[in-house]
Write a structure and sequence with these properties.
The structure is a single chain. Strand 3 and strand 4 (about 60-65) form a beta hairpin. This protein is of the alpha+beta class. Helix content is about 25%, strand content about 35%. The two termini are about 15 Å apart. Strands 2-5-1-6 form a four-stranded antiparallel beta sheet, with helices on one face. The chain has a two-stranded antiparallel sheet with strand order 3-4. The chain has one domain (about 1-110): Dimeric alpha+beta barrel (Alpha-Beta Plaits, 2-Layer Sandwich). The longest helix is centred in the N-terminal third of the chain and has 16 residues, at about 20-35.
């Protein structure tokens, strides 16, 4: 089953721009690639680069920035193919930002299952 790992942390924290942190992410990415479970994964640009779109009363409304003000921002994601939730949670605990942010693990709804 595929799981999405949504990586949240404080984008203003110096930890996010630390070269050592990038190296740790490189090691994690190498691990899941070597295990054959990596399907996708990318870091995201800062929330200041985002635009939120809402469609109300026949009109598209755009707002600069994220859809909500939060202490932690979505900074990136992985999609891994895991045998079950237990395996997914084991990988989530190895994502470097889990030490100071949070990792939301969510199963992907496979459209052929619908």
């Amino acid at each position: 089953m595929r799981y999405m790992f949504l990586i949240y942390d404080d984008e203003t924290s110096p930890k996010g721009n630390d070269p050592a942190m990038f190296a740790e992410y490189g090691k994690f990415t190498d691990l899941v690639r070597e295990k054959g479970v990596l399907r996708a994964g990318d870091p995201l640009q800062p929330t200041a680069t985002s635009t939120t779109v809402r469609f109300r009363d026949g009109n598209a409304i755009t707002t600069d920035g994220p859809f909500a003000e939060t202490k932690e921002q979505l900074g990136g994601y992985y999609i891994l193919d895991c045998k079950d939730l237990d395996e997914a949670l084991q990988y989530a605990a190895k994502i470097p930002s889990a030490r100071f942010g949070s990792i939301e693990v969510r199963p992907i709804l496979e459209m052929q299952d619908r």
